[in-house]
Design brief:
Pathway: Amino-acid biosynthesis; L-arginine biosynthesis; L-arginine from L-ornithine and carbamoyl phosphate: step 3/3. It contains 19 helices and six strands. By secondary structure, the chain is mainly alpha-helical. The strands form three sheets. It has a two-stranded antiparallel ribbon. The structure holds arginine. The site of arginine has 10 residues, from helix 6.
């Protein structure tokens, strides 16, 4: 079969080479973008009289039919035509004859691949924005239901201070908000059209890049043809955003795995999102959370893959860049699937409020509140910290909590302590009194829920 670029060649490509060189096995995913780009290009070629209007029309009709044929499963792509761009061009020539050979006027495959991938990335960004919104919604809804659910907050995985479950969830909603903003920024920076860059140095034909940019919904054409065909920073930025968002979900997954262990028993995952063991009949494992944690590493791999591919290649296009696609597709698919499963899983978790409350009472999570109490009565914080530390040590020796420590013993450490201390160190009050901006009090968490709803979920 004669190659579309075969003129200069005396020999056929070796089959091994054909196999190694071809990208159709994965870039067929871009068919709709390739056709969309070609239709815009053909319209422009017609309207600038680079080809006849009638030729432009027959190319466009042919491309539309090819799209229908592909979607009806009537088309089998061939490795012989290397990639999606040449497969479609070949199909077009087969369908409409010699006019089809005019489509590639003033255009290069380097142009096409840069355009197709950018269109794919832009669509993916918009889908991911929707999925991230759904994710924010489930987090904020669950937070609203748990404004009064007290749990211990941790540092070093040691009980630290009491917070609410809502506050913990809203930390992840804030992260998801920034994940969303990173996608918004992507659109601001990267909605620029490479088409018209040619192979590397534009074209001698009087093309109208403003027109194609408008037809394809871009903010405008890129301003340097070498840059247009050869940078893949928009893939790097998207995979970087994916890596950060995956890292955020992975941290929550780590907490979910801990919380659903018998040692914590803070939550129970729904049966529908857990799995059993082939040997141990009692097991109910948090596989969805573990998989998201595991897939985070895979998405980092996608990012490192494209960064490494790009780091040493001279301008402009080099075939190394054919390696840009699988990591992008994988990163986008993985991030999307993880957002969907996390949203579904969190919607169905059961929260064991009593266990959370009980745990927040252990581990002296209210010790800071005792120290703060002494400060409010006039002690310097460092002195209050020292006295509180001594009281905690005394409690540990006697195996009791601060709430159980008798008043006269408190008084032996400081005469400033009165009966009202017990109210002050009640973990529920400890949470409510933390009413500084961004704190865990019901009031503050409600403000953060409202902010996210107002700006992103309306
Ligand atoms: N299949 C190629 C890719 O994915 C398309 C561009 C080919 N360009 C070229 N000059 N060989 O990068």
């Amino acid at each position: 079969m004669e190659k579309l670029w075969g003129g200069r060649f005396q020999k056929d490509t070796d089959e091994l080479m054909e196999d190694f060189n071809s990208s159709i096995a994965f870039d067929s995913k871009l068919y709709a973008y390739d056709i969309e780009g070609s239709i815009a290009h053909a319209k422009m070629l017609g309207s600038t009289a680079i080809i006849e209007m009638s030729e432009s029309k027959s190319i466009i009709d042919g491309l539309k039919e090819i799209k229908e044929d592909i979607e009806a499963g009537k088309v089998e792509f061939s490795k012989k035509h290397e990639d999606i761009h040449m497969n479609i061009e070949f199909l077009l020539i087969e369908k409409i004859g010699d006019t089809g050979k005019k489509l590639h006027t003033a255009r290069s495959r380097n142009d096409q691949v840069a355009l197709d991938l950018r269109l794919y990335a832009r669509d993916s960004v918009m889908d991911l924005m929707e999925l991230t919104k759904n994710w924010m919604k489930v987090l904020t809804d669950l937070a609203e239901e748990n404004l009064y659910t007290i749990m211990p907050g941790y540092t070093h995985l040691q009980r630290a201070q009491p917070i609410s479950f809502a506050h913990n969830l809203m930390a992840y909603a804030e992260m998801a908000k920034r994940d969303y903003q990173r996608l918004e920024n992507w659109l601001k920076i990267h909605n620029i059209m490479p088409l018209g860059s040619g192979a590397l140095a534009g074209t001698t034909f009087p093309i109208d890049r403003e027109m194609t940019a408008g037809l394809l919904g871009f903010d405008g054409p890129c301003m340097n043809s070498l840059d247009g065909v050869s940078d893949r920073d928009y893939i790097i930025d998207l995979l970087s955003a994916a890596s950060t968002a995956m890292m955020h979900m992975s941290r929550l997954c780590e907490e979910i795995i801990l919380w659903s262990s018998q040692e914590f028993s803070f939550i129970e995952l729904d049966d529908a999102y857990s799995t059993g063991s082939s040997m141990m009949p009692q097991k109910k494992n948090p596989d969805a959370a573990e998989l998201v944690r595991g897939k985070t590493g895979r998405v980092y791999g996608d990012l490192v893959s494209i960064l490494t591919t790009m780091k040493g290649i001279p301008l402009a296009y080099n075939k190394d860049m054919q390696e840009d696609k699988e990591c992008l597709f994988d990163g986008v698919d993985t991030w999307s699937k993880c957002l969907v499963i996390m949203t579904a899983m969190m919607k169905t978790i059961k929260i064991c409020k009593d266990n959370m409350l009980e745990a927040s009472k252990g581990g002296f999570t209210n010790a800071t509140d005792l120290a703060d109490y002494l400060v409010k009565k006039g002690l310097a914080f460092r002195d209050a910290h020292k006295i509180t530390g001594e009281i905690v040590f005394d409690c540990i020796k006697n195996n009791i909590s601060l709430d159980e420590f008798p008043l006269e013993k408190y008084k032996s450490y400081s005469q400033l302590i009165e009966e009202d201390i017990y109210d002050e160190i009640d973990v529920r009050h400890c949470v409510q009194y933390r009413n500084s901006i961004g704190g865990p009090s019901v009031n503050q968490v409600q403000i953060s829920i409202e902010n996210i709803r107002e700006k992103y979920l309306k």
